[in-house]
Amino acid sequence: MRRLALGGIAAIAIMAGCGGGEREGAPPPPREATTTSPAPRHDPRFVAQCTAGEPTRFASGLSRVRGVAIAVGDTSQMIVVDADAGSVSAIASRVVEGAAPQPIAMPGAEGLFALEAIDGERFVVITRGACPEGHEATHCLAARLLGPDAGVRSEAVIIELPGALRTVRVGASGDAVWIARTSAGPQPELDRIAAGEGSLEVTTRALGDGIDAREQATEILGLAVSGGSWAVLWRHGAAEDATSGVVLSTQLDEHDVEALHEALVLESFQWYAGALSVIAAFEFARPIFVRIGADGEVRGDVRAVPPGEAPPQPFATRRTAAIVGGGERLELEVRDGAGDAIAPRVAIEGAFVADVARRADGFVVAYARRDGGLAIETRDVRCAAASR
């Protein structure tokens, strides 16, 4: 097992001024409520029935909507709408029906990148686009801290990118948002966006200094964060290439993980009982469950997850949701920890852009639909065991 040195750390802190009133070349970043596999790998006998509640309207009469994102905190929910370059609009759950979305300037923004809930009540919104004046790079991310009332709580912080993003994973824990990302040529990098009272601080760490990835494509497979601990599983080279490999990077060191050499996607990935629990999907086989130590070594047996059976802990009751379809025929698909659909899809009637987040024991979908002008609505989705 080869041990690799970690790269250096660069930190930038930007303090807030007075309070004020999707990525190029990469798929939308998976959230906790989503999974990256395009579809289940088998046709299961559905074990549940999912239904959508009545719509709640938060805005109407909008002239343009390019994207929408939703995040749920302990006491509030935030919806962010992407309509115009250079800004987004935020809608807090505490506003009355029909209240005007609050515009938020985002330097260089060309589209929404992520919206994450942190520390129970605040949110971090991130956009992607061109770099603002004064930055040498051409591709940048911009982030701002929002309060539970959709008010801006920080100045924008800028993350310079070495090029167009190829693959991305986003996670949140405590008061921080984490972004694991790759671009063509340079090494993978991990950003930590930590929130203070009125500021955001960005720390960027290079991954895989012991691997020359300039001649190989790199791909982020998974990101797990818990408190200050983090783990990134990433690939260099194509899965079918004998010279490729999957690397586990943590805050301590880096190791090759031979057991995941041919994995296509991680359906589930988290710290549990002192190790990393993983469900990995493959092209021509059922997903496998494996536990990996921080040293990259497999702990216990590697086992397939049979169709129709609950995955091992900690994923036995895990539920994720994904928006599927296109045009104005979007649907929500709820899946188990192995990536298999548990119920027939739920139609999101009239929606042409949508996002989904976990809420309590169900999900909430935010979407835009045409109704005279454009309207922003949400629906709660609940799943119950199917009758036999």
Task: Specify the biggest β-sheet.
Answer: 5 strands, antiparallel
Oligomer: single chain
Strands of the widest sheet, in order across it, are: 1-20-19-18-17
Strand content: over 45%
CA-based shape = globular
CATH class: Mainly Beta
Which architecture does the CATH hierarchy give at level 2?
7 Propeller
- Domain count, please report it: 1
Uncertain runs with pLDDT below 50, 5 residues or more? 1-38
Overall pLDDT metric: 87
Kindly report the CATH topology.
Methylamine Dehydrogenase, Chain H
Q: What class do helices, strands and sheet pairing give? A: mainly beta
Count of beta strands:
30
How do the helices and strands follow one another from N- to C-terminus?
EEEEEEEEEEEEEEEEEEEEEEEEEEEEEE
Indicate the topology.
Layout: E1 3-4, E2 9-15, E3 48-52, E4 56-62, E5 67-72, E6 77-82, E7 87-92, E8 102-105, E9 109-118, E10 122-130, E11 139-146, E12 157-161, E13 165-173, E14 176-183, E15 189-195, E16 199-206, E17 218-226, E18 229-236, E19 245-250, E20 254-256, E21 265-272, E22 275-281, E23 288-292, E24 298-304, E25 319-324, E26 331-336, E27 346-347, E28 351-359, E29 362-371, E30 373-385
Antiparallel strand pairs: 1-20, 2-16, 3-30, 4-30, 5-6, 6-7, 7-8, 9-10, 10-11, 11-12, 13-14, 14-15, 15-16, 17-18, 18-19, 19-20, 21-22, 22-23, 23-24, 25-26, 26-27, 28-29, 29-30
